[in-house]
Amino acid sequence: MCIGVPMQLTEYGGLHAQAAGRGRDERVDLRLVGECAPGDWVLVFQGAARERLDMQRAAEINAALDLLEQGLGGGSIDPDANPGFALPSAMSVADLAALAGGWASGGPGAACAGGAAAAGSAAGSMPPALPEQD
Fold this sequence. Notes:
Layout: E1 5-13, E2 16-21, E3 24-29, E4 41-45, E5 48-53, H1 55-72, H2 93-99
Antiparallel strand pairs: 1-2, 1-4, 2-3, 4-5
C-alpha cells in the first residue's frame, strides 16, 4: 500500500528540506510544491513533498494513519469513536465535491451518466469508470 505521510519542515534549503513526522526525520525534495519555510506542513511520498497541507489537514491525515496502524496492529477499534475528522460517508454532496476537487458536483472531469469521463475534459481528469463485474 502506498501512503503519503504528513511531515513538518524543520530546515529549508532551496529544492530540499529536512522534515519530521510520524517518528521519523528525512530529507524531502520540494520541487513539486515550490518554495516553503520551516514550520510548513507537506504530504511526503517516497521522499518528495507532493502537496502542501495546513495544520488541520495534517492532523486529519495523522488521525487516519493512527486508525490504520491500530487496525493493522490487531488492536480493537471502537466503532463509535470520533476519528478526529469527517468521514466521507457523513459528508454532504457539496463537502464531498469540495474534497474531491469538484468531481461530485459536475466540475472539471465530472463523470457522465454512463460512467465515462466527460469527452474533451482537461488533462488530469477522472479516468473512465471500470466495467461492472458480474
